[in-house]
């Protein structure tokens, strides 16, 4: 019996004594706030671009609340379904379900309630389309990524990452009531960004994923192959980011920023490939690219949000 099987057979770690503060902290941790922050960073600039200026602060606030609830629902249900492998991986062994701070039943109820509230909230405050897109995002992340792909294919993060692209569609539709090519380009930027963002992290924690029998690309392929894939997706991502200029009618200022940020990202990706070919340890360089990818996406979407406010 493997480590995953033995831990799964006992269900969950014995629940420690809990205070109300600890339980509430555990509930918050299940929603993965840092991931929610990154998702919301893409929502506000998208709404500015859709409005061509500054939209109603009430609409922005309502969209952010609904989006945060939807993301929290998806993340909590992901933790519920992955509680067995979270116990095995050192990176996740302190999560509330893995330690027993929160029970599986509590996590399941929390995830379901957050999902229902998010969809109802968005429907009432922003309209049916954002609400349905939020529901689709939750379903895709939980069913397609967590249940169907994550433990079966090294392409899990490629297709599963589509759920993380949905906030731009939600933000755009909240402003306009519809979708167009511009939000689809924004969707594609995040879609092609996700593999070169996540694969460096899974390179760093390859042994964790291998122990949990999760076939992330670095588990089933060598470092050079992984680095080549990161470089390939990075080039496509940068190309798509420049496509927003003609599609959305952004100013040349956005194009310059996108090009500079893209060049910096590509440099880091190629340095990772060079290091992989040399046979050197990749941990430090991989984490540098991982953290740099967050900075890249944040600054790129700051440029997206500022561009409609420029006086030219």
Helix segment tally: 16
Helix content: over 70%
Number of strands: 0
User: What is the CATH topology of the largest domain?
Assistant: Tetracycline Repressor, domain 2
- Give the quaternary arrangement of the chains: single chain
Largest sheet: none
Q: Termini separation (Å)?
A: 66 Å
At CATH level 2, the architecture of the largest domain is Orthogonal Bundle
**What letter string, H or E per element, gives the SSE order?**
HHHHHHHHHHHHHHHH
Strand percent estimate: under 5%
Number of domains: 2
* Structural Rg: 20 Å
Query: How would you sum up the global shape?
Result: flat
Q: Assign the CATH class of the largest domain.
A: Mainly Alpha
Description:
The protein has 16 helices and no strands. By secondary structure, it is mainly alpha-helical. The chain folds into two domains: 21-179, UbiA prenyltransferase (Tetracycline Repressor, domain 2); 180-312, Up-down Bundle (Four Helix Bundle (Hemerythrin (Met), subunit A)), CATH 1.20.120. The protein starts with a helix and ends in a 6-residue tail after the last helix.
């Amino acid at each position: 019996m493997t480590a995953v099987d033995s831990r799964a057979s006992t269900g969950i770690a014995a629940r420690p004594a809990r205070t109300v503060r600890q339980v509430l902290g555990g509930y918050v941790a299940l929603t993965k706030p840092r991931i929610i922050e990154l998702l919301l960073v893409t929502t506000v600039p998208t709404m500015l671009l859709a409005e061509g200026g500054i939209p109603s602060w009430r609409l922005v606030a309502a969209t952010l609340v609904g989006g945060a609830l939807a993301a929290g629902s998806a993340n909590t249900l992901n933790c519920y379904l992955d509680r067995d492998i979270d116990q095995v991986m050192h990176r996740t062994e302190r999560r509330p379900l893995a330690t027993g701070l929160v029970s599986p039943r509590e996590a399941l109820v929390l995830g379901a309630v957050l999902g229902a509230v998010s969809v109802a909230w968005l429907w009432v405050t922003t309209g049916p389309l954002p609400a349905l897109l939020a529901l689709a995002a939750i379903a895709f992340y939980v069913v397609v990524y967590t249940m169907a792909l994550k433990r079966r294919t090294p392409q899990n993060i490629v297709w599963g990452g589509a759920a993380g692209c949905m906030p731009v569609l939600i933000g755009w539709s909240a402003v306009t009531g519809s979708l167009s090519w511009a939000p689809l380009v924004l969707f594609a930027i995040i879609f092609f960004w996700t593999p070169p963002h996540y694969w460096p992290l899974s390179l760093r924690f390859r042994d964790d994923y291998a122990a949990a029998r999760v076939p992330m690309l670095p588990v089933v392929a060598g470092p050079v192959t992984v680095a080549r894939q990161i470089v390939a997706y990075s080039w496509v991502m940068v190309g798509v980011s420049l496509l927003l200029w003609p599609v959305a009618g952004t100013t040349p200022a956005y194009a310059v920023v996108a090009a500079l940020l893209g060049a910096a990202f590509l440099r880091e990706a190629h340095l990772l490939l060079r290091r992989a070919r040399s046979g050197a340890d990749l941990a430090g360089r991989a984490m540098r690219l991982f953290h740099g990818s967050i900075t890249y996406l944040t600054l790129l979407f700051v440029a997206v949000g500022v561009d409609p406010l420029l006086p030219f």
